[in-house]
TrEMBL record:
Belongs to the class-III pyridoxal-phosphate-dependent aminotransferase family. InterPro entries: Aminotrans_3, Aminotrans_3_PPA_site, PyrdxlP-dep_Trfase, PyrdxlP-dep_Trfase_major, PyrdxlP-dep_Trfase_small. It comes from the Bacteria. It comes from Brevibacterium metallidurans. The keyword Cell inner membrane does not apply. Gene3D superfamilies: Aspartate Aminotransferase, domain 1, Type I PLP-dependent aspartate aminotransferase-like (Major domain). CDD domains: OAT_like. This is Aspartate aminotransferase family protein. One of its GO terms (molecular function) is transaminase activity. Keywords: Aminotransferase, Pyridoxal phosphate, Transferase. NCBIfam families: PRK06062.1.
């Protein structure tokens, strides 16, 4: 409406005057105003409609403004907006019960945080206290959050300017078949060599010093490169053998994104700790947490856990989680994500890869896919260098957006990450727009 657009213009002015933004220079830039959102669509400050193929930051897994979740937040707000974490609260108890039920193995206790970064901070703290060790292993090409330790264990360039006080953090090379660090030519070779590298690193760092290994089950922002067969099983075996706590970061991959409730379910691996956030309540109210195994829980049965947050298990956030999980179950959204990946997104992307020479690789599952753009398929030279953008990538993204799709892009990749309940026709329409944007990318192939 006209009123919404006028409010949007005012908000844009005030934003430039007073809001300090994440991850970027504050100088001249023109953030997109969003005046409304519904399901898989958002409307910008000019009233243009976009299909949200980003799920914002890959978190609105049930789309925007799901009526059952909005109603649950309203109902909870009318009853009890907030309560300190030491008190029992029905929304928190029920959210914890549901998450424990969904989590694999004996991960039956939940510590709630405000988001993903602090979930990882607490998981590492638990692992250090549980083992009495200090070091943490994490993968290059990963993202674990913006707080100090979370950004230190992160393996992407956002770590570089923040890389101090990273005591005990050691990075390893992940299994990443498209650009194998190990010279592997088959999936089995990649798994075998990546695991040998990891075991060597554990031995060389001293297993008795290593508290935890943190790994995204399917690395998200770093490229949606799912593990080759056997890799996660090998990580589980190695960490168990050396007494290292295995933390699966499922902040992005969890809660249906991969077509399973937790991504580890695809490989039937049970970590010691799982961190989650984002999809747990579709981001309607900030929430994250750590699902904790019985063995680690036992460490803190008679010993105080030295950590806490004013908003741990916030009633509004937990009520949103209960309603989100309920809506996902009732509407079969996890199964739908699996089907969309297997029957719509995957086949279409593979067909696009055949026709567009700019496509180096397509990979993914569920509603979690990456398209990697290259200048040359033989050399795999990326369309934007690691850690940056390029005029060419910007042109491709601009074409996609001009066609009415809001994309998630990172370096030389476009991620196809719509809400799990996006209508088939909308997914197909978005992929048709991608087809046209890829024609722009083809123009840069040498
Ligand atoms: N871990 C992963 C895998 C993520 O993708 C993110 C956010 O993108 C985080 C952790 C950090 O979560 P938050 O931004 O909620 O702190």
């Amino acid at each position: 409406t006209e009123d919404q657009l006028a409010a949007g213009r005012r908000a844009h002015e005030l934003d430039l005057a007073h809001v300090f933004h994440s991850w970027q220079a504050q100088g001249p830039f023109d953030p997109m105003t969003v005046v409304a959102a519904e399901g898989s669509y958002v409307w910008d400050g000019e009233g243009r409609r976009y299909l949200d193929f980003s799920s914002q930051l890959v978190n609105t897994n049930i789309g925007h403004q799901h009526p059952a979740v909005v109603a649950a937040i309203q109902e909870q707000a009318g009853r009890l907006c907030t309560i300190a974490p030491q008190h029992v609260n029905d929304a928190r108890s029920e959210a914890a019960r549901l998450i424990a039920e969904l989590a694999p193995g004996d991960l039956d206790h939940v510590f709630f945080t405000n988001g993903g970064a602090d979930a990882n901070e607490h998981a590492i703290r638990m692992a250090r206290l549980h083992t009495g060790r200090t070091k943490v292993l994490s993968a290059y090409r990963s993202y674990h959050g913006g707080t100090q330790l979370a950004v230190n264990v992160t393996g992407d360039p956002r770590r570089f300017p923040n890389d101090y006080s990273a005591e005990g953090v050691v990075h390893f090379m992940p299994a990443y078949q498209y650009r194998s660090y190990f010279g592997a030519t088959t999936e089995a070779e990649e798994t075998e060599r990546a695991l040998r590298h990891l075991e060597d690193l554990i031995v060389l760092e001293g297993p008795a010093n290593i508290a935890a290994l943190i790994l995204e089950t399917v690395p998200g922002t770093a490229g949606i490169y799912g593990p080759p067969a056997g890799y996660l099983e090998g990580v589980r075996e190695l960490t168990a053998r050396y007494g290292i706590v295995y933390i699966a970061d499922e902040v992005m991959a969890g809660f249906g994104r991969t077509g399973r409730w937790f991504a580890v379910d695809r490989w039937e691996v049970t970590p010691d700790l799982i961190t989650f956030a984002k999809g747990v309540n579709s981001g309607y109210v900030p929430l994250g947490g750590v699902a904790i195994s019985q063995a680690i829980f036992e460490t803190f049965r008679d010993r105080a856990y030295p950590g806490g947050l004013t908003y741990s298990g916030h009633p509004l956030a937990c009520a949103a989680a209960v309603a989100t999980i309920g809506a996902m179950r009732e509407e079969g959204m996890v199964e739908n994500a699996d089907r969309l990946g297997a029957e719509v997104i995957g086949p279409t992307l593979r067909e696009l890869a055949q026709r567009h020479p700019s496509v180096g690789d397509v990979r993914g599952m569920g509603c979690f896919w990456a398209v990697e753009l290259v200048r040359n398929r033989e050399t795999k030279e990326p369309l934007a260098a690691y850690g940056g953008s390029s005029p060419e990538m910007n042109a491709v993204i601009a074409a996609f957006k001009a066609d009415g799709v809001l994309p998630f892009a990172n370096f030389n990749r476009i991620h196809i990450v719509p809400p799990l309940n996006t209508a088939d026709a909308d997914v197909r329409r978005g992929l048709e727009a991608l087809d046209r944007a890829l024609s722009v990318a083809d123009g840069f192939v040498d």
